[in-house]
Amino acid sequence: MATEALLIIDMSNDFVADDGSLTAGAAAQEIVPYIVNLAQVMHGQGQPVAICMDTHHVNDAHFAEWPPHNVAGSWGHELYGELQDWYRKVEDDAHVIYVEKASYNAFYGTNLAQALRRRGVDTVHITGVCTDICDFLTAAGAYDEGFQTVVHRRGCATFTGNHDVFIDQMAICFHAVIVD
Ligand SMILES: [Zn+2]
């Protein structure tokens, strides 16, 4: 039975594309091939892959704090580039999970922990954006839910200068295994 799952966090057009409304830009675009490759490898091994996606509605209260982004059904909410191409091919697979999240932590207010446990998962691999926001807080959520975490330094990115600090902090706080 599968014991490891890949989490792909917030790799939407709004967070990754040049003209996304809250984009991490080139830093986020550079990690796409790494994540696509990891998704293909893990999916090929029969491991679950979870697309964890910030999801809002047009008049979301969250937009008092941030520019509008990831509105359900919009271009900005779709996965970016090659990730969307890959997802289209596998989206009906029982081991591919799509989780709509409303906050930073993909485990908060979602069925992600249940969906993973049902598939026998005890370890989650963290990739996506942003290292120091949703990746870090999802690692915290995974820790609280009792999952071992593996964090991919070349599979995460952020628009700030805090990338390496937060990757290292995941090892300190959550005993995450770092893949360099
Ligand atoms: Zn949001």
From TrEMBL:
Matches recorded under Pfam families: Isochorismatase
SUPFAM superfamilies referenced in this protein's UniProt entry, alphabetically: Isochorismatase-like hydrolases (SSF52499)
Keyword Mitochondrion found: no
Keyword annotations: Hydrolase
Organism superkingdom: Bacteria
InterPro entries: Isochorismatase-like_dom, Isochorismatase-like_hydrls, Isochorismatase-like_sf
CDD domains attached to this UniProt entry: cysteine_hydrolases (cd00431)
Listed GO MF terms: hydrolase activity
Ranges for domain Isochorismatase-like: 5-178
Family classification: Belongs to the isochorismatase family.
Family matches, as PANTHER family: ISOCHORISMATASE (PTHR43540:SF10), PEROXYUREIDOACRYLATE/UREIDOACRYLATE AMIDOHYDROLASE-RELATED (PTHR43540)
Protein name per UniProt: Cysteine hydrolase family protein
Organism: Alicyclobacillus fodiniaquatilis
Top-level taxonomy: Bacteria, Bacillati, Bacillota, Bacilli, Bacillales
